[in-house]
Amino acid sequence: MAFAEREIPGDGTLAATFKCPTCGRVIAMLTNPMETQLVSSLGVEIGGRTVPAEPFETISKAVVTGGPAWSSDAQERLSRVPSFVRGMVKKIYGDYAKERGITEITPAVMDTARAELGLEGM
Amino acid sequence: MRTYHQLTDPDRSGLADQIGAQRRRVAEQLAGVQRIVAVMSGKGGVGKSYVTAHLARSLARSGRAVGVLDADFNGPTIPALLQTPPEAAAPAIGLDGVKCVSMGHFLTDGAPLSFTGPPAEGFVWRGAMEAAALREFLGDVKWGPLDFLVLDLPPGMERYLALCDILGAPPAVLTVTIPTAESRDAVRRAMRAAVERGSDLLGIVENMVGPQFPGTAGDDLAREFNAPVIARIPFNPSPSVWDEIPLR
């Protein structure tokens, strides 16, 4: 059996399929959300990595930083921040919004915060 | 049917290589660190964070380059004790120039630590996620050259054991206790575990010394483990108390 494909359907589960190079038969290994989470905690990619791990990859992806909600536009903008500072940048915006009673962080909120706090480039 | 260890086909996921890369990353990042010291105790509330912060500051004032890794992810207090500004990159710089990284730098003020993941049976994987966070704090922070990297561990042994596994070698240990017999007995277990893992016991700090907490835990543990009591910290210590520690 040779590894063929990894599928992450987005519901917390993971499927890894393996194919017999001789007969073409395919089998799949399925993990439930708990098992997937355990694999994630190892900081490894099933199927192999194509790029090296980013700094603070697990913390950036898995730690719920708390505070206000993030709009999808704001999340997309945050995703462009280098990963090694993303968690801290997220906290700064979160603290800014919390102090002002802002319940959702949008790109407009980020712009205002950036100007007020002097966070050019974030 | 073959077992895992009988497989000879190439591992397309390269899991062993990925784990190896993680370990190299930690080793490379800590290559400039002369000494790693874990501040630990088997008991909560004895002042580990307080001792860690003041020890780090006193070492910095004596001319050493010092970093603090706040490994108490669920109750991070080092940012407040070192008064780190809300900087955007780790490590932050705190009082007396001490470098610092803490989960407190990643969480909105007051937010508890939680992870994305299946809401049920979180106890199954939560410890593994915290170990992953510790690995990233060790391997992804550009500490630069340090004379000391001091780790503030939470109560209990789990974080210490994870630290030993990630480092590949046991760190030196500084133990904190209060004078009471109850604290002594809890700290004894932790010190035994540290000895069993091969840690170098640097000594014992007896904290909160005074009539409020009578006892002889510091001396008892020192005798039992042949480790020095390097400081006795009263309830309201003067600054000079801390500055004497680096001399010992």
Which tags fit this structure?
heterodimer, A: 122 residues, alpha+beta, Helicase, Ruva Protein, domain 3, 3-stranded antiparallel β-sheet, two-stranded parallel sheet, 5 helices, 6 strands, B: 248 residues, alpha/beta, Rossmann fold, 8-stranded mixed β-sheet, 8 helices, 36% helix, 20% strand
Secondary-structure element sequence of chain A?
EEEHHEEHHEH
SSE pattern of chain B? HEHEHEEEHEHEHEHEH
Secondary structure: number of strands of chain B: 9
In terms of DSSP E residues, the strand content of chain A is 15-25%
Oligomeric nature of the chains:
heterodimer
Strand order of the largest sheet of chain B: 3-4-2-6-1-7-8-9
Q: Note the main sheet of chain B.
A: 8 strands, mixed
> How large, in whole angstroms, is the Cα Rg of chain A?
19 Å
Low-confidence parts of chain B: none
Shape of chain B: globular
Overall SS class of chain B = alpha/beta
Continuous helix count of chain A: 5
CATH architecture of chain B: 3-Layer(aba) Sandwich
CATH superfamily of chain B: P-loop containing nucleotide triphosphate hydrolases
Structural class call of chain A reads alpha+beta
User: Any idea what the CATH architecture of the largest domain in chain A is?
Assistant: Orthogonal Bundle
Overview of the structural elements:
The complex is a heterodimer of chains A (122) and B (248). Chain A has 5 helices and 6 strands; from the N terminus they run βββααββααβα. Chain A is of the alpha+beta class. Chain A folds into 2 domains: 1-52, no CATH class; 54-122, Proto-chlorophyllide reductase 57 kD subunit B (Helicase, Ruva Protein, domain 3, Orthogonal Bundle). In chain A, the strands form 2 sheets. Chain A has a 3-stranded antiparallel beta sheet. Chain A has a two-stranded parallel sheet with strand order 5-6. Chain B has one domain: Rossmann fold (3-Layer(aba) Sandwich), CATH 3.40.50. Chain B has 8 helices and 9 strands. Chain B has helices at 15-29, 48-61, 78-82, 126-139, 158-167, 181-197, 217-225, 239-243, and strands spanning 33-40, 66-70, 92-93, 99-102, 114-115, 146-152, 172-177, 201-209, 229-234. In chain B, strand 8 (201-209), helix 7 (217-225) and strand 9 (229-234) form a beta-alpha-beta unit. In chain B, helix 1 crosses helix 4 (126-139), helix 4 crosses helix 5 and helix 6 (181-197) runs parallel beside helix 7 (217-225). Chain B starts with 14 loop residues before the first helix and ends in a 5-residue tail after the last helix. The chains are: A alpha+beta (122), B alpha/beta (248). The interface between A and B is large, with 46 and 41 residues.
